[in-house]
Amino acid sequence: MKKKITVLTLCAMLFAPSVSAEAQQPQKIPLIGRLSPGSPSANPARTEAFRQGLRELEYVEGKNIVIERRSAEKRLDRLPALAAELVRLKVDIIVTAGPAATRAAREATSTIPIVMTNDSDPVATGFIASLSHPGGNITGLSTFAPELSGKQLELLKEVVPKLSRVAVLGTSTSPSTVHVLKEIELAARALKVKFQFLDVQNPEDIESTFRAIKKERAEAVLLLATGPLASQRTQVVDLAVKNRLPAMYPSLDFVEAGGAYELRHALYRLGPARRYVCGQDFERQEAR
User: What number does CATH give the domain 147-264?
Assistant: First the structure.
């Protein structure tokens, strides 16, 4: 007996895995595994948005759906073991938050559907073959929108009309960084603004990075969506304020931490029910 699940995720991106439905088992309560690299209390708004999205589809946690949560508490080396634990629990779907969690889930299973919810460039990371035909067992949504970085720089220029030097903070090993920097370079050339990329590989690099920004006399900061910066967003916002630097942040989380400016695509603009997963439709099949 083979069992398959079709997961339809409608948001900034839509991937549609092909499966055939023959029989359903409505009596079985779906079991979702949720894998996160950070703390479960780090993003309560997103957690509630996830629940609300399920409620809109008449799935209520504890009644007709069960969610098993596993969080690495910022210790990424724990993710493989946590992913393997979810596989042993025989979850129907694994929902991942970020590329590190998606990678761990992919290495743990090639049969359980994986719904990624915050991966910047799943093609570059090798998670899927292409956006139109992902293949394999990974589906979900992507936050890949490098063209927005150019728009972010334009907005910074409007906020600081005399802007001539801007520091761009990101992680060089992130697959999307190359694409994003190309867009920033095009915008910077048009706006006659010089930019300097500062590589933040670890949270410990953040303070020294802001010291470098001050030394180079940058007049504003543009942050890319990277793990080290996101996990320490409160520290990042505080340092930007302390150094009196106008800053453009990659997500609403930074604004909620006290930041001022944020420009992001539909992942943050479609309302709380669509911030993470806009729709999921569980279909159980049996092949005899």
Answer: 3.40.50.2300
Q: Are 68 and 288 in contact (CB under 8 A)?
A: no
Three-class HEC string of 176-234: CHHHHHHHHHHHHHHHCCEEEEEECCCHHHHHHHHHHHHHCCCCEEEECCCHHHHHCHH
Domain residue spans of the chain:
31-144+270-274, 147-264
Distance between CA 100 and CA 73 in Å, rounded? Answer: 13
Q: Do 31-144+270-274 and 147-264 come out as alike in CATH topology? A: yes
CATH topology of domain 31-144+270-274: Rossmann fold (3.40.50)
Q: What is the pLDDT of residues 68-107, one digit of tens each?
A: 999 988 788 899 999 999 999 999 999 998 888 999 999 9
Strands lying side by side in the sheet with 194-199: 194-199, 165-170, 220-223, 247-249, 261-262
Q: How far apart are CA 13 and CA 200, in angstroms?
A: 28
Q: For the segment 236-283, what is each residue's pLDDT rounded down to a tens digit?
A: 989 998 999 988 887 767 777 776 654 544 333 333 322 233 233 344
